[in-house]
Amino acid sequence: MEILSQLYPSNVQVNRKWEEYKKPVEVEVEATYEISNEKAKGLGVSFIPLEVSLRDSVESFKEKGFLSI
């Protein structure tokens, strides 16, 4: 929501109630996993930033009439 409110400041009203849920939570973890995108990059996959993906999605929804902001 924070990113959307920055991309569309006059159209997105952020309900700040969710901020209380952003606090870190301690959880016991039995195993540690490592995730890497190196193999995908090696195959030529390029990743776009989240902000670009969100903006493209919103613009597509607007074009299709799913959003009217």
What does this structure look like?
It comes from Corchorus olitorius. This is Bifunctional dihydroflavonol 4-reductase/flavanone 4-reductase. It is a single chain. With 69 residues, this protein is mostly helical. It has a domain at 1-6 and 48-69. It has three helices and no strands. It is flat, with a radius of gyration of 18 Å. The mean pLDDT is 86.
Would you kindly provide a brief summary of this structure?
36% of the residues lie in helices and 0% in strands. It has 69 residues and is mainly alpha-helical.
**How many H/I helical runs?**
3
Q: What distance separates the N and C termini? A: 15 Å
Helix content: 25-40%
As a percent range, the share of strand residues is: under 5%
Our Rg estimate from Cα atoms comes to 18 Å
**What order do the SSEs take from the amino end to the carboxyl end, as H and E?**
HHH
The parts where pLDDT drops under 50 for at least 5 residues are none
Shape designation: flat
Number of strands: 0
- Overall average pLDDT: 86
Main pleated-sheet profile: none
Structural class by SSE content? mainly alpha
Oligomer: single chain
